Amino acid sequence: MNKRSAYRKRIVKEPPTLDLFKPVGTSMRTAQKVILTLDELEALRFADYRQLEHLEASQKMNISRPTFTRLISKARHKLAQLLLEGCVLKIEGGNIEFRSTVHECQDCGETVKQSIEAPLKDCQECGSSNTENLADKHLDSD
Ligand SMILES: [Zn+2]
User: Fold this and answer.
1) Which protein residues have their CB within 5 A of the ion that is ligand 1?
2) Across residues 24-33, what is the average pLDDT?
């Protein structure tokens, strides 16, 4: 029973456009790295950015309320750790599925949000066909 729910994918609205943060003056080689998973970021987005109740947030992510509470607690601990210890923050991983995605132009940096099934299109800003689906990047890393 617990095993099955542990494998149930957590719903995340869309991949983040920024997934690496480094404190000024630290070195990527020597700084301690903190990994924030995509479901932990989504928990922060709901509870602390949009300020939803935990029950509503847990329903949106398709997890139980106690699971949500554990998730947000872990995420907040990691943020406190990186602020106090000056860690590099990398956002990756987690047992998740996206509802929509972001296509980022590799030439001009323009981003477009669209549903996860929609095909990759040329950049609306500069016309380049060199666009990346940010969801693929995160789903590949699992
Ligand atoms: Zn472009």
Assistant:
1) 105, 107-108, 110, 123, 125-126, 128
2) 91
How much distance in Å is there from the Cα of 92 to the middle of ligand 1? 25
The total number of structural domains that make up the chain: 2
Spacing, Cα 17 to ligand 1 middle (Å): 15
Tens of pLDDT, residues 83-111:
999 999 999 999 999 999 999 999 999 99
The amino acid at 50: R
Per the structure, the complete domain to which residue 109 belongs is given by 99-140
CATH code assigned at 116: 2.20.28
Measuring CA to CA, which residue among 89, 106, 5, 110 is closest to residue 44?
89
The structure's pTM equals 0.87
CA 102 to ligand 1 centroid distance, Å: 13
C-alpha 14 chain-centroid distance: 7
Q: Which amino acid is at 42?
A: E
Instruction: Verify that 83 and 114 share a domain, yes or no.
Output: no
- The rounded Cα 120 to chain-centroid distance in angstroms is 20
- Expressed in angstroms and rounded, the spacing between residue 78 Cα and the centre of ligand 1 is 34
